[in-house]
Amino acid sequence: MGTQAVRLSAREGEVARLVADGLTNRAIATRLCISERTVESHLERIRKKLDFHHRSELAAWIARQTGSPSGSTGDGSLPALGTAHDRDRRADERQRRADDREQRADAREVRADQREADLDERERLLAPRELRVERHS
Fold this sequence. Notes:
Elements: H1 10-20, H2 25-32, H3 36-50, H4 55-66, H5 84-136
Helix pairs in contact: 1-3, 1-4, 2-3
């Protein structure tokens, strides 16, 4: 498989450039606000697409693609990360997903509270019956 025709997703490109800059998986995860396992998954897909086995191969490939020793452009920015609008859109999407998760957790909590209230009511209703059964025994 030729590496020249391979297209990485935007996120894979970000991860690849950060690897080329010498960041660890943990540092990449922190920088991109994702888990280390997600970084590992991106790297697995990148290596599979490019038929690479080592991070150093990826770093060298990025250097060839960008024309610099690391993935950076020299001014501290990374190439092809998108516009500020793209970054804001991704941040907004991450926030929306976090809000959705929080809303689902709140709904689960409400359902659990309702179940607990139902059980309390059931116990309250059954208590007089149990007393009558004990008196007749």
